[in-house]
Design a protein that fits this description.
heterodimer; A: 263 residues; Ubiquitin-like (UB roll); Fumarate Reductase Iron-sulfur Protein, Chain B, domain 2; 8 helices; 14% strand; B: alpha+beta; Flavocytochrome C3, Chain A, domain 1; Methane Monooxygenase Hydroxylase, Chain G, domain 1; 5-stranded parallel beta sheet
């Protein structure tokens, strides 16, 4: 075994976990003395252990969203000591492991906090507003069967790489939770950045930018360039994409107005 | 009365079957498509691509997912890539070769006509996805890049870094989002499908439970499409996402759809071993690591030294010794079985002695750490995050885990189950991978089914129904199904048992993994057939589900799924017991070559084993679909 690893070591933690029975119910913290937590388990497995013990005591287990547990589906995400997904950079909650904590630590666990992410129950929130943004224009219209041969549209490697950097977004919502204004600029910019640099994305570029940004603004707060979003992002989506969003939105407003005045 | 399975394979030479079929199936006039309502369950690659494509054609589609967003479906976790017979590399690929490789890779237990069609439409899939903006890897000239994958001698795999599944899923999700905005698709998220409704022998709808409010609702349509994934979580520990389940498929089975080849499960050789009892899932490390890593265990089971201190003489490079030609690059099933053998011999490594080493010391010494970092950096980081060990300094520990299930609902060439009006797509059906799936073929099949097969074949069923209305949801068939779901929920909550749902799921997983995992034998399978029903009985009497039915209740969601796994597991074991041969992912220890390879019995077992539900108190009946091979020559696989 490599030095520094302590397989089998156990932690005792003081947990303060947010409990809320439903969207319109009041919430409160529940204090839990979590003993014998294996260092090797993930943060969500730690919650599994806590839940098993609650069930033994006939207390309803804590509701939290999770699915793939390998950092790609974007389902999980809680505030851990005030940070979305916790202390490790570029790490979703499910990929955070308990060896990053110390024996005796107090850990405060809350749901993502944002007006557009209402709490469903305990640590689970509703992020459907993200889907509304995508539905408003986050796609390239290409009905099945109409596509030309894939190699008919060459795309320079750096452009494809740039698009992929943006497309890596997992839609977890950490960016919104980290933002003091609960803005969704980074999420929206990631999709706009992905589609707007590709040649296939050009025909709908300006319509897409206007529609997505305005749908975003109908749900979320405004961006004031704090940059907390990118810091919290488990996929390290760059703030540069927000610059692309701002530029495209501005151009779109001008272009779309000109087009409208011609009809 | 026994079910008769008609695969409806079209006539003609293999290369013309699909074209002939497309011409002969009935069509629905464009203006009439809006008069048909289709329910699509599941929004992964198969479901989302089907929902989008059907809506583009004009059908009224209702899509259902239990997730908060369609984009969460487990297709998103696929890493490696997607195959297509584009022959962009000029290396001799063709539709016929992809077809041949897939049938051979499946150990000759798939239906030739379906596989040929899959290879044909693979070309269209790449075009479609590239046009949607899927950021596939590119060469410097701007054209698409490819890599090679196990089981093929050509480079035909397209990929988007290590996130191919994510990018293809987002493409399908976005296509569906466009149709949601256009009004062609109505999305029901957080809708858990708990039953399939069949009236007069035809599928007419589903029953869902709203995972936020608990409301149980009936939905009616002209056809029902299940794209609900595989049953790998019957093992509890697998690489599947936590919420993957067999419920929709199993409920369809209980309503008359035959379930085919449930014993076929793919085990992936390179996963991170479990660290303790509370391990909730296993994480896959890309197979590409076997290109440079050397797999070994200490020769002496008492060897307590750190890996680096063990000299070459005391290391057992078991794959290199047994398979000098392929070495560490033998196919998935061979690598997996050999790892199990050495761990069972007590040679396993790690705190729980449940893994084997995958060692990069040689390649680091040869090529330097920076080159290795460039190639595998993200995988090494992921490994370190999970285990706390640095694979640049000490070898990785790996062990096989369940990854994909080849069995599923039986479907004909149209992807329709034996229940008229009920379709199964993607991993949910049994069709294209036979007894073993080749790498980069799952994404291909999911998208083939959804984008390019179902939109053509579903019209054949719907066309004669023009002018008929869907069965109203107050029909007794619906009200009875809703009442059953309500009743089931009430029963779980009324119990005041002592053990959690997870406890029973874990126990079930241990039995299925032990006796029906990588290697199976008669004694073990018979043992499982006594242990599973006993566990199921205890589970049904003693499970503890707290909370109420009218709010989010994750234990209640899970208890229905585990209940269905408890029944499914038994069928899986019975299927494994009846198949007295070894093929692909199904290895019966009694049936192996002198060299320890899988030994098929083509004379007696070249068929699809479809199981027909006979009621809760009677075992399913076996119905066979014989497999005929007119184009591919059946041979023994050898990797020596």
């Amino acid at each position: 075994m490599s030095a520094g690893n302590r397989h089998g070591a156990k932690l005792r933690l003081k947990l303060r976990i947010w409990r809320q029975a439903g969207p319109d119910e009041p919430g409160r913290f529940l204090d839990i003395d979590a003993h014998d937590i294996p260092e090797d388990c993930s943060f969500l497995e730690m919650l599994d252990i806590v839940n098993e013990r609650l069930i033994e005591d006939d207390i309803e287990p804590i509701t939290f969203a999770h699915d793939c547990r390998e950092g790609i589906c974007g389902t999980c995400g809680v505030m851990i000591n005030g940070r979305p997904h916790g202390p490790e950079s570029a790490t979703a909650t499910c990929q955070l492991h308990m060896r990053k904590f110390r024996d005796g630590d107090e850990i405060v666990i809350e749901p993502f906090r944002a007006a557009s992410f209402p709490v469903v129950k305990d640590l689970m929130v509703d992020r459907r507003a993200f889907d509304r943004i995508i539905e408003s224009g986050g796609f390239i219209s290409v009905p099945t069967g109409t596509a030309p041969d894939a190699n008919e549209i060459p795309i320079p490697k750096d452009v494809a790489d740039f698009a992929m950097d943006a497309a890596a977004c997992i839609g977890c919502g950490a960016c919104v939770a980290a933002c003091p204004n609960s803005a969704a600029q980074l999420f929206t910019a990631a999709k706009l950045g992905h589609l707007s640099v590709l040649p296939q994305g050009q025909p709908e570029r300006w319509r897409r930018a206007e529609a997505m940004v305005e749908t975003m603004e109908s749900f979320f707060g405004s961006c004031t360039n704090h940059g907390e979003c990118s810091e919290a992002c488990p996929k390290e989506i760059s703030l540069d994409f927000i610059a692309v969003l701002n530029r495209d939105y501005l151009k779109a407003k001008v272009k779309n107005r000109r087009l409208a005045s011609q009809t | 009365m026994s079910v008769v399975l008609d695969a409806k394979v079209p006539d003609g030479p293999i290369a013309e079957k699909w074209d002939n079929h497309k011409f002969s199936v009935k069509l629905v006039n464009p203006a009439n498509k809006r008069r048909f309502k289709i329910l699509v369950v599941g929004t992964g690659l198969a479901g989302a691509s089907a929902a989008a494509s059907l809506a583009e054609l004009g059908y009224k589609v209702e899509a259902f997912t239990f997730h908060d967003s369609p984009r969460r479906a487990h297709s998103i976790a696929a890493q490696g890539g997607i195959n297509a017979a584009k022959n962009y590399r000029n290396d001799g690929d063709s539709v016929y070769r992809l077809f041949y490789d897939t049938v051979k890779g499946g150990d000759y237990r798939s239906r030739e006509a379906n596989v040929y069609r899959l290879a044909q439409v693979s070309l269209n899939i790449i075009d479609q996805c590239a046009a949607q903006g899927v950021p596939f890897a590119r060469e410097y000239g701007g054209l698409l890049a490819n890599r090679s994958f196990g089981g093929a001698q050509v480079s035909r795999t397209f990929y988007a870094r290590g996130q191919t599944g994510q990018q293809l899923l987002l493409g399908a999700y976005q296509a569906m989002a466009a149709q949601i905005a256009a009004g062609g698709v109505t999305l029901h998220n957080r809708a858990d499908v708990l039953d399939i409704v069949v009236k007069d022998g035809e599928a007419c709808g589903i029953v869902t439970r709203d995972l936020l409010t608990g409301e149980v609702r009936a939905h009616s349509g002209h056809a029902v499409v299940l794209a609900t994934g595989g049953y790998g979580n019957v093992y509890y520990l697998s690489t599947n996402a936590m919420n993957c389940n067999v419920t929709a498929a199993w409920r369809a089975h209980r309503r008359g759809a035959t379930f085919a080849n449930p014993c076929y499960t793919q085990i992936h050789p390179t996963c991170i071993p479990a660290s303790d009892e509370f391990q909730s899932k296993l994480t896959l490390m890309s197979e590409s690591l076997r290109n440079d890593g050397r797999i070994w265990v200490p020769r002496n089971s008492d060897d307590a030294r750190a890996a680096a201190d063990i000299g070459d003489a005391d290391r057992y490079y078991f794959l290199e010794e047994k398979y000098p030609a392929f070495g560490n690059l033998v196919p998935r099933d061979v690598a997996s079985r050999n790892a199990k053998t050495v761990v069972d011999q007590g040679l396993g490594v790690g705190p729980l002695r449940n893994g084997v080493y995958l060692d990069f010391a040689d390649v680091i010494a040869r090529d330097g750490e920076s080159l290795v970092r460039e190639k595998y950096g993200n995988l090494f980081d992921m490994y370190e995050r999970i285990t706390g060990e640095d694979p640049y300094r000490s070898p990785m520990r790996i062990y096989p885990a369940t990854h994909y299930t080849m069995g599923g609902l039986w479907v004909d060439y149209n992807l329709m189950t034996n229940v008229p009006g009920l379709y199964a797509l993607g991993e949910c059906n049994f069709s294209d991978h036979g007894a073993n799936r080749l790498g980069a073929s799952a994404l291909m099949q999911g998208l083939a089914d959804g984008y390019f097969v179902l939109p053509y074949t579903i019209g054949d069923y719907l066309a004669p129904k023009l002018g008929t209305a869907p069965v109203p949801v107050d029909d007794p068939a619906f009200t009875a199904a809703v009442a059953e779901v309500d009743d089931r929920t009430r029963r779980w909550l009324a119990k005041r048992g002592t053990k959690s749902v997870d406890h029973y799921h874990r126990e079930l997983g241990k039995i299925v993994w032990e006796y029906c995992g990588m290697a199976r034998n008669r004694t073990g399978l018979e043992k499982a057939l006594t242990e599973i029903p006993a566990l199921r009985e205890e589970f049904r009497a003693n499970v503890k589900v707290l909370g109420s039915a009218d709010t989010t209740n994750q234990a209640l969601e899970q208890v229905n799924r585990v209940d269905d796994f408890m029944e499914m597991a038994e069928l899986k074991v019975r299927d494994a017991l009846h198949r007295e041969e070894s093929c692909g992912g199904h290895f019966r220890e009694e049936h192996q070559t002198p060299e320890g390879e899988a030994l098929r019995d083509d004379e007696n077992f070249a068929y699809v084993a479809a199981w027909d539900w006979q009621g809760a108190d009677r075992p399913q009946e076996l119905v066979k679909e014989p497999l005929e091979f007119e184009n591919v020559k059946l041979t023994q696989r050898s990797y020596k």
